[in-house]
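ok so i was messing around last nite and threw this chain in just to see what happens. nothing serious, just curious
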Amino acid sequence: MKSAHSTAYFAQNFMPESFNEPFTKQRLQHFQLLDDDTLPYCYVVAYRGFMKTTSIYAKILHNTCFRKAKFTMFASKTMDSATIVTENVKSTLLGNSNIREIFGNFRPAAYNGQNPAFSKKAFFVGDPATGEPFSFITPKGSEQQVNGALIYLNGKLIRPDYLIDDDLGDRELCLDEQNRIKTANWYWRAYLYCVQRKYPDVKTGRWIRPDPEKYPDWTPPFRIISQDTIKHEDALMVQIMNHTNFVGNTFPACEFVEGSETKVRSCAPELWSDADMQKEFDQHKANNQEDGFAMEMMCLPRSRTTGCWSKDLFQYFNDRDLKEKLESLEESDRFIIVDPAKTAKTKSAKTAMLAVAFDMESGIYFRDLVNRNLEMHEIPQVAVEMAIANKTRNIFVEKTGAEDLEEYLFFSYMVSHGLKDIINVRFLDARNAMKNVDFIESGNHSNKAKIARAGMLLPYYKQMQVFHEYTLKGSALERQELSFPDCGMWDAIDTASYVPQVLRIGGKFMLPTLRMLKEFESKIQRPEKMSAEQLDKHIKNRDWAVL
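result:
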């Protein structure tokens, strides 16, 4: 009876060889999530070595022995990796003496003229007494065909009622934006739609469990359980964690001490001490492998010490709320940057355009983004439309190697539409762009120049001086910034990376804040000591020469 209600207890007693390590607080919480049948959507993020896959293997066995699932679909990054788990389930059902003694021999006989015996991949499980199948288990690889997943069982066609996926994302492929999009599209548009169209309680988001006395054999219409580590800031698992339907937990091996980027503490004291975790972190740091440690052991996409973008650097604004302020800036403080596609084949590359406003007191505002396939003759028109929408006369265009044609197309469009003296078009030479030496010299990379340019934009984010319009949330720009420096696509981030160059051309600089000026004032000696009231007055009046 206790095993029926607890997969952890079932695993310890029926598979003691596989579960011979201490059941930590985290692992017990993990099994509680797996056993909560009222949760239709569940996620688990845990460190490498947490026994995520082994626990799922135990859960599938538990469901089978106690008839909790009719059609289980187990998915992993490849068909081979998924098959390993389902084969282990099959081998345990056939060979585990403890299970055979209590639950019987699950080897099925012929069924309605078919032989549902265990196959190499998908298989039926038969009742020990009658031989008739009562459950079906099938493995699937990421992005494999899952539409129309139906099986004939007990006189009717049924859909999967237990979807379990473990380690769907490949570490290398996850670095490429297009691969992340493909995996996410498969998950949200195909995989989740395998189950029947029933919905949990609107208020709680859970299945309502009926009276156990009247319905002792109740099972939920379906359950979907997703497990993985976090392999990227924009990985599928991050999307799942942020989705309102999913309930779950994160189980890191250790975490950063509050306020520190170098001190860690253990989250599983039953297994490791704080000193153990600190030593391992320091070893990875010494070998420049902090990101790998953060991903595998801390459930983070990268270490805090890595000088790249993270989601906490993104600040948002509503353009409608700041429209009056931004349009009152000088004309030279509003501009459009254009990064034309490097090929005439519109399906192979995208053109990116970014509308920017610069306020010397508060920061840089990214107001709008175009990121789509455009033919070369369409680029000037779209750029001008964007300039008009953002009330700016200034368009900066990156030279791509086909600048003669670009210049001709732009100026031809301006002349033919009477805009020659209204819109100012300037061309930016990538060779003269500001570059971050650290990124130029770090490692071998085919996109060194782009990495170096983007590296000059990062300090503005680190100082919280960049703001994104809400429509840019989750955009190509943010996805590429989160992928940096391993971007699969570069169009949007490369466009934004020219902002420092445009600001330098216009002689634009951020003004010091009131706090910074007061701190500076306290550290220097002046011929005439200025009172705090006088200092405040001069700062508010922008009397920089006096200061």
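not much to say yet. The CA atoms of residues 276 and 459 lie 34 Å apart.
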